[in-house]
Automatic annotation (TrEMBL), chain A:
Residues 57-208 form the Thiamine pyrophosphate enzyme TPP-binding domain. The gene is vorA. This is Ketoisovalerate oxidoreductase subunit VorA. SUPFAM superfamilies: Thiamin diphosphate-binding fold (THDP-binding). The keyword Hydrolase does not apply.
Automatic annotation (TrEMBL), chain B:
SUPFAM superfamilies: Thiamin diphosphate-binding fold (THDP-binding), TK C-terminal domain-like. This is Ketoisovalerate oxidoreductase subunit VorB. Pfam families: PFOR_II, POR_N. Signal peptide: none annotated. Residues 15-195 form the Pyruvate flavodoxin/ferredoxin oxidoreductase pyrimidine binding domain. Transmembrane segments: none annotated. Keywords: Oxidoreductase. Residues 248-340 form the Pyruvate:ferredoxin oxidoreductase core domain. Its EC number is 1.2.7.7. It is an enzyme of class 1 (oxidoreductase). One of its GO terms (molecular function) is 3-methyl-2-oxobutanoate dehydrogenase (ferredoxin) activity. It comes from Thermoclostridium stercorarium (strain ATCC 35414 / DSM 8532 / NCIMB 11754).
């Protein structure tokens, strides 16, 4: 019997610890499928960060480094500069990348560092139980914005793709979403393109994935998907912000 | 021995690192050690390596973490406030057992302090400035020649034990120029690094560099293994110099630049008939307590001299362990202990412990 669907090689045969309805599993699978399809698992070094996906080294089967909070782009820089033929990617959440690690991501992007960044944006700190993130939407309730995020008190959400796209350094920046099959397919194309940009030694690539956190949002998995579409996409429009006409 | 060159201390460190096979340097400018970065920026591209000026000390040490994880010999350097920023990374390097060489050319603090020399980062270097139960090997050169030799040694020790080795100098050592006599060939030791992340090539198991272990039993086991390693280093790697210790009745304890001042004090005191010797720790961690046991029979008292309010003295007190009186003299803020002040203390110690005794 022909096998038409199976676990990607780059994903280990283990159960993940993520909450029901969390899209980390989808994002992991997409990255692993891309590593398989490009045949690069054996020369890839992944950098996991701090947050719910801190232990993604238990799920991906390539060589991995666990980085301090926010520092994954710097760690990735060190790896890539020593091993330019390795494929290096970071996997970071919004608290990691857009708060404590803002300097590291901005400067890795500005250097045009030849790495790929997978950026999971679910507008909240998941692992530490639902505090405000830099990406938290206005009026969104979190454990540290119990009356909703108010611009005058807490500032405005940060649109990472738009911000980084103002720099000369990055080659390819795209925001995709994981809320339905159609968008998941587009997200995979974006991830694949990001890795291909690196393989072609064209420089810095980043894919932001609009993601869920049903547990800390207090929504069901289905309601969470709807929230991405109805509430997140208006603030974080999907699309290519840099490298639209890039052929790789 | 090979060629002799007149070199600045900071440049001797950089040249030594390249000779030791360090092709990767990540750093951020800060006085008084910036010449290391200047030298690396000039030389590393020509040697086929990489010099990268990071956006901060925090980024620099994490670039070191990434580079060291691939098995490469890698170095960063900074001065006191910059080293404070690197402490996060140093703790992670220790936890993940990634080897690296870190240079701290100390200036006076606390805070932004000043740019003059100091030894006030002793606690931070030797007692763990970052979080967690960890140690790093701390080497304290006292001449430009020794900066060169100990830097080569630092890379060997780092790889041998998968540990951070810190070169702890001060602004005077970094800035002073002395003749360095280079070896024709460096004693570079090569260690297999089967743990490194380089891409597994589909022909070995995945390698993971990590310091997180959420299961307390697993984390305690990891800590016990670290402690075992530190114990081994304590037994094998203590280094010190005993100077004019023959028939000495009083001992000065000093490291780095201050040890040089101590030596000139000793010459004058000896001419006055006061028998003074010097214990100069070369490894500050592990602290060479055995040096004190060696001289204890003849020593009547010790004088610790530091460019700090008294940090190394705590290790001296532990080593002496109540057997003799320990005196202290220290200067702070970038002020350097002067010969005559130390001499005066030695004369008083002589009256108290030898003449009367």
């Amino acid at each position: 019997m022909a096998v038409i669907f199976q676990r990607p090689n780059a994903l280990k045969d283990v159960s993940m610890h993520y909450c029901p309805g969390c899209t980390h599993g989808i994002a992991h699978r997409l990255v692993a499928e891309v590593l398989d399809e490009l045949g690069i698992e054996g020369k890839t070094v992944g950098i996991s960060s701090v947050g719910c996906s801190y232990n993604s080294y238990d799920y991906f089967s390539c060589d991995m480094i666990q980085a301090p909070h926010g520092r994954a782009p710097a760690v990735a820089t060190g790896v890539k500069r020593c091993k330019p033929d390795c494929v290096v990617f970071t996997y970071q959440g919004d608290g990691d990348l857009a708060a404590i690690g803002t300097a590291e991501i901005v400067h890795a992007a500005a250097r045009g560092e030849n790495i790929t960044v997978i950026f999971i944006n679910n507008t909240i700190y998941g692992m530490t139980s639902g505090q405000m993130a830099p990406t938290t939407l206005l009026n969104q309730f979190t454990t540290t914005t119990p009356y909703g995020r108010i611009a005058e008190l807490h500032g405005f959400p940060i649109n990472v793709c738009e911000m980084l796209a103002t720099l000369q350094g990055p080659t390819y920046i795209e925001r995709a979403s994981l809320h339905d099959v159609k968008h998941i397919k587009k997200a995979k194309e974006a991830i694949k393109k990001a890795f291909k940009v690196q393989l072609a030694k064209l420089g810095f690539s980043l894919v932001e994935l609009l993601s869920t956190c049903p547990t800390n949002w207090g929504l069901s998995p289905v309601e969470s998907m709807t929230r991405i579409e109805k509430e997140m996409i208006p603030q974080y429009p999907i699309g290519v912000f840099k490298g639209e006409n890039l052929e790789v | 021995m090979g060629r002799k060159l007149l070199m600045r201390g900071n440049e001797a460190i950089a040249e030594a690192a390249i000779r030791a096979g360090c092709l990767y340097y990540f750093g951020y400018p800060i006085t008084p050690q910036t010449e290391i970065a200047h030298y690396m920026a000039r030389k590393l591209p020509k040697a086929g390596g990489v010099f990268l000026q990071a956006e901060s000390e925090v980024a620099a040490i994490n670039m070191v973490y990434g580079a060291g994880s691939t098995g490469a010999r890698v170095m960063t350097s900074s001065s006191s406030p910059g080293i404070s920023l690197k402490q996060e990374g140093l703790s992670y390097l220790a936890g993940a057992q990634v080897p690296a060489v870190v240079v701290n050319i100390m200036r006076a603090g606390p805070g932004l302090g000043g740019i003059q020399p100091s030894q006030s980062d002793y606690f931070q270097a030797c007692k763990g400035g970052g979080h967690g139960d960890y140690r790093q090997i701390v080497l304290a050169p006292s001449s430009v020649q020794e900066l060169y030799e100990l830097t080569v040694e630092a890379f060997n020790l780092a790889d041998k034990y998968r540990i951070v080795v810190m070169i702890l100098g001060d602004g005077i050592l970094g800035q002073m120029m002395e003749v360095v006599e280079f070896r024709d060939e460096e004693p570079v030791e090569h260690y297999e690094k089967p743990w490194a992340v380089t891409g597994h090539g589909n022909n070995r198991k995945q390698n993971i560099i990590t310091s997180i272990h959420l299961d307390p039993a697993v984390l305690e086991k990891m800590n016990r293994e670290l402690q075992k390693k530190y114990e081994l280093i304590k037994q094998k790697e203590c280094r010190y110099e005993l100077y004019r210790h023959e028939e000495a009745e009083l001992f000065i304890v000093a490291y780095g630049t201050v040890a040089r001042i101590a030596k000139s004090v000793i010459e004058i005191a000896r001419r006055e008939g006061i028998k003074v010797g010097l214990i100069r720790p070369i490894t500050l961690w592990p602290f060479p307590a055995e040096a004190f046991d060696k001289v204890m029979d003849m020593a009547k008292a010790f004088l610790t001299v530091e460019m700090s309010s008294g940090q190394m003295i705590e290790d001296v007190l532990l080593a002496v362990n109540g057997r003799r009186r320990v005196y202290f003299h220290g200067r702070m803020g970038g002020m350097v202990p002067v010969r005559d002040d130390i001499l005066e203390i030695i004369r008083r110690m002589y009256d108290e412990h030898v003449r009367k005794g």
